C-alpha cells in the first residue's frame, strides 16, 4: 500500500483529488484537515515522514494565460520524504484569495519555520500559529508580495531610491 | 602643470594642482564587491593588468581610510543601506566608481529586489559599463577618474528616475539610512 492509498483510506472525506505519475504521488486536501493529516504522516510508523523537504506556494492568477480559472487562487505545496522508507508524498492545499491563511506545521517539522516565512514574504499567505511570521527575504518596509502574479515586475519601492 | 621651472628653480604650480597630482596617484580604494564583477575587478588588480601602475594598488577595507569607493556588482534593496552607510563613513574628498552595468543602471535586472543604478542612492563620478567590463575598460575608467581627481571635480548629484535628470544630492529627498535603521529595529 502506497502512502497515498494509506492516507486516502484514513481520510477519504478530506481528500479533494489525487494524482500519480511514475511513482510521484500528489494529494489535494481540504485546508481544515492539514494539521491532522500532517500529524498522521509524521507519526504513523509505516509512513514515518520525518523530513519536510520543501514548502512553497503557487499563484494561479492568469494561469495558462488566463484560459484556466481555478476555484481558489493559491495552492500551498508540501513535499514530504521518509528517510526510513525512502518514499515521498506531495500535499497540496487550496487557499482562498480573500483570507489566505493555513495552519502552521512548525510544531511538527522545525524546518517549516523559514519556508513559511518565505511563503508569507513572497505570496502573502499567513500561517496560523507560526511563532515568528515576518518577512525573511525582503525587508519590513517592503510593500506588497513580490511573487504574486499581480505584483508589477517593475514596481519601485518607496524606501529605496529618491522619494517624490 | 610643472613643478619646477628649470631656469630659476622657482615653484610655479598651484597648490590645488599639486594636491590633485598627489591624490590621483595614491588612490586608496574601498572595493564594495557584491557579485560576479568582482572577478574582473580581481583580474584588473592582479599582476597581469596591475592596477598598481596607476597608484591604485592598495585596497583598504575600512571606509575611513579610503577615498575611492568601487561599487562592484549588483546592489539589492537590502544592500542599499549598507552601501549608503559605507559612503557616509568615508572622509572627504571622496569619489565613487560604478563598476558594471548593474551599478550603473540596474543592468538587465528590472525587478522587486534590485536597486536601479546606485546613482539613485549615492553620487557617482565614473560609470564603467559592461557585463562585466574587461580590465582594459576598467583601467580606462580609472584613468578618467584620475583626470577628474586632478581637476578636483567631484560628483554631487543623484539621479532622479522621475525627471530623468541629475539633481544636487543635498536637494534630493533621498532615502535616509537613519530612518531605515529606526524602522527596522522597531
Radius of gyration based on Cα positions of chain A: 17 Å
User: What structural class should be given to the helix and strand makeup of chain B?
Assistant: alpha/beta
Instruction: Specify the helix fraction band of chain B.
Output: 25-40%
**Helix and strand run of chain A:** HEEHEEEEHE
The biggest beta sheet of chain A reads:
5 strands, mixed
Low-confidence stretches of chain B: 172-186
* Average residue-wise pLDDT of chain A: 90
| Proportion of beta-strand residues of chain A | 25-35%
Q: Looking at the chains present, what oligomeric state does this protein adopt?
A: heterodimer
Topology pattern of chain B, helix = H, strand = E: EEHEHEHEHEHEEH
> Judging by the overall fold, what is the CATH architecture of chain B?
3-Layer(aba) Sandwich
- End-to-end separation of chain A in angstroms reads 63 Å
Proportion of residues in helical segments of chain A = 10-25%
Please tell me the total number of domains of chain B: 1
CATH superfamily of the domain at 3-104 in chain A: NADH:ubiquinone oxidoreductase Nqo5 subunit
CATH fold topology of the domain at 3-104 in chain A:
Beta Polymerase, domain 2
Mean pLDDT level of chain B: 81
How many β-strand runs of chain B?
8
Count of individual helical segments of chain A: 3
- Span from first to last CA of chain B? 56 Å
Helix and strand content put the structural class of chain A at alpha/beta
Q: How would you sum up this structure, described in words?
A:
The complex is a heterodimer of chains A (164) and B (186). Chain A has 164 residues and is of the alpha/beta class. Chain A has a domain at 3-104: NADH:ubiquinone oxidoreductase Nqo5 subunit (Beta Polymerase, domain 2). In chain A, 18% of the residues lie in helices and 28% in strands. Chain A has helices at residues 3-10, 34-43, 112-123; strands at 15-21, 24-29, 51-59, 74-82, 87-95, 101-103, 126-128. In chain A, the strands form two sheets. A five-stranded mixed beta sheet of chain A has the order 1-2-5-4-3. In chain A, β4 and β5 form a beta hairpin. The longest helix of chain A is centred in the C-terminal third of the chain and has 12 residues, at 112-123. Chain A is globular, with a radius of gyration of 17 Å. With 186 residues, chain B is of the alpha/beta class. Chain B is 32% helix and 16% strand. Chain B contains six helices and eight strands, in the order ββαβαβαβαβαββα. In chain B, β7 (157-160) and β8 (165-168) form a beta hairpin. In chain B, α1 (15-24) runs antiparallel to α5 (135-151) and α2 (37-45) packs across α5. Chain B is globular and about 50 Å long. Classes of the chains: A alpha/beta (164), B alpha/beta (186). Chain A binds chain B through residues 138-142, 146, 151, 153-157, 159-164, and chain B through 77-78, 80, 110-113, 115-116, 120-121, 158-162, 172-175, 180, 183-184.
Amino acid at each position: 500500500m502506497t502512502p497515498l492509498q494509506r492516507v486516502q483510506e484514513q481520510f477519504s472525506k478530506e481528500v479533494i483529488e489525487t494524482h500519480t505519475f511514475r511513482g510521484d504521488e500528489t494529494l489535494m486536501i481540504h485546508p481544515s484537515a492539514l494539521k491532522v493529516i500532517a500529524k498522521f504522516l509524521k507519526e504513523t510508523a509505516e509512513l514515518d515522514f520525518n523530513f519536510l523537504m520543501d514548502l512553497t506556494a503557487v499563484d494561479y492568477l492568469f494561469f495558462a494565460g488566463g484560459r484556466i480559472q481555478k476555484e481558489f487562487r493559491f495552492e500551498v505545496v508540501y513535499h514530504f520524504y521518509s528517510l526510513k522508507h525512502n518514499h515521498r508524498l506531495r500535499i497540496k492545499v487550496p487557499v482562498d484569495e480573500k483570507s489566505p491563511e493555513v495552519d502552521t506545521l512548525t510544531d511538527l517539522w522545525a524546518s517549516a519555520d523559514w519556508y513559511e516565512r518565505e511563503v508569507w514574504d513572497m505570496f502573502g499567505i499567513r500561517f496560523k500559529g507560526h511563532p515568528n511570521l515576518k518577512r525573511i527575504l525582503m525587508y519590513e518596509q517592503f510593500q506588497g508580495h513580490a511573487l504574486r502574479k499581480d505584483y508589477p515586475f517593475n514596481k519601485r519601492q518607496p524606501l529605496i531610491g529618491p522619494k517624490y | 602643470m610643472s613643478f619646477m621651472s628649470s631656469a630659476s628653480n622657482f615653484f610655479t604650480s598651484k597648490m590645488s594642482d599639486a594636491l590633485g597630482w598627489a591624490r590621483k596617484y595614491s588612490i586608496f580604494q574601498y572595493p564594495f564587491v557584491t557579485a560576479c564583477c568582482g572577478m574582473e575587478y580581481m583580474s584588473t588588480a592582479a599582476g597581469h593588468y596591475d592596477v598598481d601602475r596607476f597608484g591604485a594598488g592598495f585596497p583598504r577595507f575600512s571606509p575611513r581610510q579610503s577615498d575611492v569607493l568601487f561599487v562592484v556588482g549588483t546592489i539589492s534593496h537590502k544592500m542599499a543601506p549598507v552601501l549608503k552607510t559605507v559612503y557616509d563613513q568615508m572622509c572627504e574628498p571622496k569619489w565613487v566608481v560604478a563598476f558594471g552595468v548593474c551599478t550603473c543602471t540596474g543592468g538587465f535586472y528590472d525587478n522587486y529586489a534590485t536597486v536601479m543604478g546606485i546613482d539613485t542612492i549615492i553620487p557617482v563620478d565614473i560609470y564603467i559599463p559592461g557585463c562585466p567590463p574587461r580590465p582594459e575598460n576598467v583601467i580606462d575608467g580609472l584613468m578618467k577618474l584620475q583626470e577628474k581627481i586632478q581637476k578636483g571635480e567631484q560628483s554631487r548629484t543623484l539621479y532622479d528616475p522621475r525627471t530623468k535628470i541629475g539633481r544636487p544630492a543635498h536637494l534630493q529627498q533621498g532615502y535616509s539610512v537613519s530612518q531605515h535603521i529606526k524602522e527596522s529595529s522597531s
